[in-house]
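Pipeline run #58 for the internal structure catalog. This entry was flagged by the ingest filter as a single-chain record with no existing model, so it goes straight to prediction. Upstream metadata was stripped on purpose; only the residue string is passed forward. Reviewer on rotation: M.T. Logging verbosity set to normal.
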Amino acid sequence: MVSNLLLKLSRQLYTDDNDREQFIQSLLEPVPIHPAIVWCQDYQPKPFPCLEPLPWQPSFTDRLELHSRPGKHELHDQGYYYCLDSSSIFAATVLLGIATPIKTIFDLCASPGGKSIFAWRTFYPEMLYANEVIGKRSAALLANFKRCKINNWEVLRSDVAVLAQQYSGQGDLVIVDAPCSGQSLLAKNTKNDGCFHPTLINRNAQRQRRILAHAATIVSPGGYLAYMTCTYAPAENEDNVNWFLKKFSNFRAIGVNCLQDYQSHLTDIPCYRLMPQSKIGAGCFTVLLQKTADEAGRAKHGRGESTFILPELVKEGRSSNGISPISSV
């Protein structure tokens, strides 16, 4: 049975009845999704049977046969690769639209670390700051960075407003893999009750706008902001990009050639969707924005809706939140 809220979303996404039917069917009867990995270290020969690379697929990633279990392989424990689903790889591939060297990266919603590791593997930056405001999720970041032998990183645990004050104009690349309604979980055959409810969608959209507004402050002049979600609702995707570009006139959207076949049909702005009926992945949204000026076009924005958390930098030793972290430089 198709819920009225899912029908409403399908009408927001598609005008064609056949397109709507295919989208709905992909959520009601999800198909198995091929596992995928990001290589952190080179290894030959490949330990798994791999699918033919897709045109947009980075050379340091592989999509595997369905029966593969990369998380159980000894090379996983040795840190040769990170298991990252195809949709997340697609979303992070927007970073390939960046042609300039990237020395400093901020991932503002980083745990468990997949997008951070993808960005590190792409640019090998001088410093990678991975932020996770929820303390118990920081442990996953630390464990994955250590296992994958990532270097030149620090894990932060701060509200984005605090980071915007501390690191204004210091990020060559800022990644916002935003908390969202997570509608794509349904395409993974995972329950997500209430994910189509307008109240939840609107609440997420407002939180995403707050994060984006502070992220804009962290981006250096000429630097980049990558925004991505794992949901389908336009309110959390294209609508947020439209809002951002109106509020921050010193940013522009950057086209990414390898993703042009996935241009969102809901806007002329270069942003990209992978939809579940493609059977490549559960679905996602992604866009790359560049800061074209410094303060001249910067918008004023509100104080936000949440209580700020005191800044906390996780380094060698024991932090006040009880985590025994590791920092590799």
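catalog note: DSSP finds nine helices and twelve strands in the chain.
catalog note: Residues 296-329 have pLDDT under 50 and may be disordered.
status: ready for reviewer M.T.
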